[in-house]
Write a structure and sequence with these properties.
It contains seven helices and six strands; from the N terminus they run ααβααβββαβαβα. By secondary structure, it is an alpha+beta fold. The chain has a four-stranded antiparallel sheet with strand order 1-2-6-5. A two-stranded antiparallel ribbon has the order 3-4. A hairpin with a 3-residue loop joins strand 3 and strand 4. The structure holds flavin mononucleotide (FMN). The site of flavin mononucleotide has 10 residues, from loops.
Length: about 170
C-alpha cells in the first residue's frame, strides 16, 4: 500500500473475522515494531503475542470487559522496560518509545490488510499477574489484531488550522 493510503486506511477496528493471521504476516508486523526509533536506542519494549483463547478472554476481562478484544485471533501486549532516558527533563522516554513502536506495528498491520485497536483501558496489575510480567515492567498498550469484519467508516479529526501554529504557540 502507498504510505499515505496506509495512514488513511488505519482505524480502530472493534470486530474481527475468525481467520488466523499467517505466521509470516505476524512476523512482518512485529519486525516493523522492532525497527522503531527510541531514546538512546535503548529499545525499552517487549511484545507478548497471545493466541490462547482462555488468556485472550481474561485479557479482555482485564481491559474493562472490552469483549471484542478476545474475538481477535491475536492479542499483542506491549510492555515498557525501565529506561534511564528522560525527555524534556520531566519524564521517562519509555511511554513515548513504546508508543512509537506500537504505531509502527499498527501501520504495518494496516498495510497487511489487518485491523487493530489501541487499548489503553486496562488493569496493569491484573495483566501483569496473568502474563508473568515482572514488577519493574509495565503494560503500555494492548493491541487486538485480526482481519476486520467491517470497513469504511471514519472518525472525525480537528482541522489542521486548529492544531498547527507558526513561530509561537497560539490558541
Ligand atoms: C492511548 C490510546 C488508548 C485507547 N484506548 C482505547 C480503548 O481502551 N478502547 C477502545 O475501544 N479504543 C481505544 N483507543 C482508540 C481510540 O478511541 C481511537 O483511536 C480514536 O477514537 C480515533 O479513532 P480511529 O483510531 O478509528 O481513527 C485508544 C487509543 C489510544 C491512542
Amino acid at each position: 500500500m502507498e504510505f499515505y493510503t496506509v495512514i488513511e486506511e488505519r482505524r480502530s477496528v472493534r470486530s474481527f473475522r475468525v481467520d488466523p493471521i499467517p505466521d509470516d504476516v505476524l512476523l512482518r508486523i512485529l519486525e516493523a515494531a522492532r525497527k522503531a526509533p527510541s531514546a538512546n536506542n535503548f529499545q525499552p519494549w517487549k511484545f507478548i503475542v497471545v493466541k490462547d483463547e482462555e488468556k485472550k478472554r481474561k485479557i479482555a476481562d482485564f481491559c474493562m470487559g472490552q469483549n471484542f478484544i478476545a474475538e481477535a485471533p491475536v492479542v499483542i501486549v506491549a510492555c515498557g522496560l525501565p529506561t534511564p532516558s528522560r525527555i524534556g527533563g520531566y519524564t521517562t522516554s519509555m511511554l513515548v518509545d513504546v508508543a512509537i513502536a506500537v504505531e509502527h506495528l499498527i501501520l504495518a498491520a494496516t498495510n497487511e490488510g489487518l485491523g487493530t485497536c489501541w487499548i489503553g483501558a486496562f488493569d496493569n496489575i491484573k495483566l501483569k499477574r496473568l502474563l508473568g510480567i515482572p514488577d519493574e515492567i509495565q503494560v503500555v498498550a494492548v493491541i487486538p489484531v485480526g482481519y476486520p469484519l467491517r470497513k469504511g467508516w471514519k472518525t472525525p479529526r480537528k482541522e489542521l488550522e486548529e492544531i498547527v501554529c507558526f513561530e509561537k504557540y497560539e490558541d
